[in-house]
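User: Hello, can you help with two protein structures?

Assistant: Certainly.
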Amino acid sequence: MGQTERFETDFWKHADLRKVWDDIVPGEPRKTIPYTLTREAIELYCASVGEDHPIYFDEEYAKRTIYGGLIAPPSIHILLMFACTPADDWMRSPGTVNAGQSWSYNIPARPGDVITLQARALDKFIRRERLFVVHDNVFFNQQGQVICSGRGWTIRPQ
């Protein structure tokens, strides 16, 4: 079974394992797992979001660009967020609402990169009876180079 095939798409599966509001500790690193980004995963991600630029699919075209080969689209961090976290991660909780995010992109991810994630909650607070978490995420390649980093705000399920 290939790595792409084992990527879980049922967000309710293992929902009972997810950390809840009281389990989120600001400053505590989240448990993460390395993920090898494949060309197949990039192609499936691009197909799912309607991205058809040849730099993501056509090796001959990509070799003639400033990148010198295939790359993943910057928004691949969406796939990586789930691929680099285990089933019990609180970011996977059904009912979580994205309340905003800000990302910086440093270098492109490429097929074959082994991606690691450093992530943590920075703060959590209640406003108007809603549970908010502020979190940061930094994705690295196998050379320790930062691919992208971001800060987000989510509203947690009650």
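That covers the first. Now for the second protein you mentioned:
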Amino acid sequence: MLTQIFYFLFGIVAIVGGALGYARAKSKASLIAGGVSGALLIIAGLLSPSLPGFILALVVSVLLLAHFGRSFATKKKPMPAIPMIVLSGICIVLTAIAWFAK
């Protein structure tokens, strides 16, 4: 249940973050990536606690972690990299716990 709620909240944060990226920098890539990753996380929340929901959330979280980790390593800009890295890490841990507790 906690994992499912986190997927929904993380999905909303991703969508809002993509919209903010578009509003501030006119970045269509941010808008599209935030919308797609957020929608996939919300779908994962709807599918969980089933295996497809866990796998979808895990894949999206790992991809977000890789993207924002690389971005922070090269640009050294903490926003939005640090919050997304933290949220992705929490999502991975919660998914692992829920998956193995099932």
